[in-house]
Design a protein that fits this description.
Elements: H1 15-24, H2 44-49, E1 91-98, H3 101-113, E2 121-126, H4 127-136, H5 138-146, H6 149-167, H7 176-186, H8 194-202, E3 205-212, H9 216-228, E4 235-238, H10 241-264, E5 269-278, H11 292-295, E6 298-306, E7 311-319, H12 324-337, H13 356-365
Antiparallel strand pairs: 1-3, 1-4, 2-3, 2-6, 5-7, 6-7
Helix pairs in contact: 4-10, 5-10, 6-7
Length: 385
């Protein structure tokens, strides 16, 4: 085993000394090699802008596999040095609603083809996801709003510990703490800004668009012209500070809402079936419509994600009696038949078979197969036997 230091920071040569200095932050500017000339920008924006028949970003894309990237536990990573950019102090948030998924895709392509910088982010959620977040993700967004992310982490750790304790007691079960949290937070008054509620009631599909303050007027004009066209339906508004914060927090709440729904409906559900999927950049039918024989096996489904790069999260709750492993395999095959890549952001673990480029990457990182052997349904044996 060897320690490789490719940070571009001179920390010495002895591994113990290197790790000690790294942990203590004991270096200064003189120890850091200058960044390469192209360090302030990447080709990623142009990569996303291409309306190509392949996904924009996914784990097994060989273009982006280098050392620690996509390592899936085949390395022990102590630190990384990455490209970054200045934090935007002045941002504008636009909230967009429509009943037609095709209009959101047309809007996405309009932004991708436009001159000027891309939006900072574009987050999609359905009105159903909005409702689920308000009911089942309330503890997440209320805690983030009033207590901050560190308190939220501690709160969820406490809840997990309490569930473990309750699970050992007769007649209690593994989700008592979730039930208590659900009940307590349902009593917390939390006023959602009226314009968000209006869009939730009026439109089935929502897009939260964040742009640099310098792009505020250009973005507003582009949206005005887009929705003024007779072939498009929908509306938008620029959020004030409270609306922008609420919309962002509700979007965060969506990520935990399906899990809480599952916990609160264990008597009717068998398991969670979740995906993060990278759709083709040219996929016009981006919003999945499940075949009836699959939809009938699901108690709940939630769709949300990062719209401009076409990476979406799909959280499903399978009904009682359904085999979730078989169901996930069938749903994965449907996605892959559309040219999508699964998984996109999460890793392979023991859930997905890793494709050849990923396996080759793992073998280069860990030729003895000593770290996380068997990941991605690869060989669990020494030297990949």
């Amino acid at each position: 085993m060897q320690l490789v230091n490719h940070l571009g920071i001179d920390l010495g040569s002895d591994p113990t000394h290197i790790l000690d200095r790294l942990q203590r932050g004991q270096w200064d500017a003189a120890d850091v090699t200058p960044p390469p000339p192209d360090s302030t920008g990447t080709a990623y924006a142009e990569h996303v802008r291409q309306i190509a028949d392949s996904p924009a970003r996914f784990n097994a894309d060989p273009t982006f596999l280098h050392e620690a990237s996509g390592c899936a536990g085949k390395l022990m990573v102590f630190a990384v040095r990455t490209r970054t950019f200045p934090l935007e102090d002045d941002k504008a948030t636009f909230y967009i609603g429509t009943d037609r998924p095709g209009d959101l895709e047309a809007l996405r392509r309009t932004f991708l083809a436009a001159d000027g910088p891309l939006p900072i982010s574009g987050e999609y959620m359905s009105s159903h996801a909005f409702d689920l977040a308000v009911e089942y993700g309330k503890d997440t967004y209320v805690s983030l709003k009033h207590a901050g992310s560190r308190t939220l982490v501690r709160m969820f750790a406490l809840k997990s510990w309490a569930n473990g304790v309750f699970a050992k007691l007769p007649g209690m079960g593994p989700s008592v703490a979730d039930a208590i949290s659900q009940k307590l937070f349902s009593l917390v008054p939390e006023k959602i800004p009226p314009r968000l509620v209006e869009h939730r009631d009026r439109y089935a599909h929502h897009l939260m668009l964040v742009v640099s303050g310098s792009e505020r007027e250009t973005t507003a004009q582009l949206l005005e012209e887009f929705f003024a066209a007779p072939e498009h339906e929908g509306a938008f508004f620029e959020c004030d500070a409270e609306e922008a914060e609420s919309a962002t927090l509700i979007r965060f709440g969506v990520a935990s809402a399906a899990s809480r729904f599952f916990v609160m409906h264990r008597a009717e559900a068998s398991a969670m079936v979740t995906f993060d999927v990278a759709l083709r950049r040219d996929d016009e039918d981006w919003l999945e419509v499940l075949p009836p024989h699959i939809a009938d096996q699901l108690l709940e489904s939630v769709y949300f994600g990062h719209f401009f790069c076409h990476v979406l999260h799909q959280d499903h709750v399978a009904k009682k009696g359904v085999d979730p492993v078989a169901l996930k395999k069938e749903m994965t095959a449907l996605l892959e038949s559309r040219g999508a890549a699964v998984p996109a952001e999460h890793n392979y673990g023991r859930l997905y078979p890793a494709p050849d480029p990923m396996i080759e990457h793992f073998q280069q990182l860990d030729p003895l197969n000593m770290f996380n052997a068997g990941v991605g349904e690869t060989s669990p044996r020494r030297r990949w036997a």
